[in-house]
Design a protein that fits this description.
single chain; mainly alpha; 75% helix; globular
Length: 111
């Protein structure tokens, strides 16, 4: 059975993919077609807004996710991967929130 550290990357990637699926659904009316398509979309979003830190975070989050299957991240590097995955999660959450507000699907908390 996989340990908590390995599973952390799997959980973060799952959470990030939920945001990406929602953004894809808003854009195209359907969820993404698979892992590779989701990664390309994430990179396209990050590049489109000129967020180099998010682009790097996507790469780290993807490697953090693959660690569940390959156990290729040394334990002492987990905090760095965790922080980058957390950043990607937070940024895509903000991007989704902004898109929902822009489309009038959600309202601002102060309205």
């Amino acid at each position: 059975m996989k340990g908590e550290l390995e599973k952390a990357g799997e959980f973060f990637w799952g959470a990030i993919s939920c945001y990406l699926n929602a953004l894809e659904f808003l854009d195209k009316g359907k969820a993404h077609g698979g892992h590779g398509e989701m990664v390309r979309m994430a990179k396209k979003i990050a590049g489109g807004i000129g967020n180099a830190r998010l682009l790097e975070a996507i790469k780290s989050a993807e490697k953090f996710h693959s660690n569940y299957y390959h156990s290729n991240i040394p334990e002492d590097e987990f905090p760095e991967y965790h922080e980058k995955a957390r950043y990607a999660f937070q940024e895509f959450g903000e991007i989704l929130k902004d898109e929902l507000l822009r489309r009038g699907i959600a309202s601002s908390p102060d309205s």
